[in-house]
Amino acid sequence: MTGIAFRPLGRADFPLLGTWLAQPHVARWWNHQTSPRALEADFGASIDGTDRAELFIALAGGQPAGFVQRYRFADNPGYMADVAAIVAAPGAALSIDFFIGEPALLRRGLGAAMIRAAVQAIWRDDPLAPALLVPVNAANRASWRTLSRAGLTRAGAGPLEPDNPVDGRLHYVYRIDRPAAGA
């Protein structure tokens, strides 16, 4: 699938984001509250620039389809230490969180296309990023299979705190390294 683009998340997107976070296929793994107050608490600081995580609406063919959040491990030293206990996590490495929000768009290859586009955007926007590392709960088969289809490889497995307390601690960490210059 082609035609993936990203635009920054804004507060005007909160109703859409809340609807997506409430979808069963997203709510199962994200475990977020969807009230306006909760959305402001979770995402407002990034929109305002006081939290360095970058938030995007993913567009497929110009239409909102999903969400991508990217962040640097160096901005989250506790999390970096947790991930580094599983795989080498250089401080300049980035990570993403992602989901397809629209149920009608599931199982069409959009997730892998969205991740590939996000990886290309990271290489373009952050020339010092050596790698992208993405921890995913081992039980979230759809996510880790999507990461694999997008070209990331499983670099390790180990315990991390789950986003949803009903899940176990086992996570897989997927990785892709910046291609060598000219590759």
Give an overview of the whole structure.
A four-stranded antiparallel β-sheet has the order 1-2-3-4. A three-stranded antiparallel β-sheet has the order 5-7-6, with helices on one face. The mean pLDDT is 94. The chain contains six helices and seven strands, in the order βαααββαβαβαββ. It has a single domain (4-177), classed as Gcn5-related N-acetyltransferase (GNAT) (Aminopeptidase), CATH 3.40.630.30. The protein has 183 residues and is of the alpha+beta class. Helices cover 34% and strands 28% of the residues. The radius of gyration is 16 Å and the shape is globular.
Nutshell version of this structure?
This protein is an alpha+beta fold and about 180 residues long.
From the structure above, extract its key features.
about 180 residues; alpha+beta; Aminopeptidase; four-stranded antiparallel sheet; three-stranded antiparallel sheet; 7 strands; globular
Helix content, binned percent: 25-40%
Structural class call reads alpha+beta
- Distinct helical segment count: 6
Instruction: Name the CATH superfamily assignment.
Output: Gcn5-related N-acetyltransferase (GNAT)
The largest pleated sheet is described as: 4 strands, antiparallel
According to CATH, what is the topology?
Answer: Aminopeptidase
Please identify the oligomeric state.
Answer: single chain
Order of helices and strands: EHHHEEHEHEHEE
Architecture, CATH level 2?
Answer: 3-Layer(aba) Sandwich
Number of E-type strands: 7
Strand order of the largest sheet: 1-2-3-4
